[in-house]
What does this fold into?
Amino acid sequence: MYEIPWGKPVNVNMLDGRCRTVIGPLDAMKCLQSEWPVRDGAYYGCAVRACNAALRHKKRPEEARAAFIAASREAFLTVLPGVEQEVKDDGNRALE
It folds into this structure.
């Protein structure tokens, strides 16, 4: 599966103090599935569905980004002001 980078990465301060930079819906799915502290919230489910839809090109990646940010706030994670530069490449990158 290929990553579809967001225009701006999302920097999230995790509960253990780490800063996690999420670059697109595939990266967000990995974060939601393996690092997320609250998995029973409505916004969590919405973010999972939105990221899956974006990866299948059924939703715009920016919609998935907005859902991921909402899930972050629901989980009491701090969304940090981050890198304001836009991601510039061909739009798709393979992630291992």
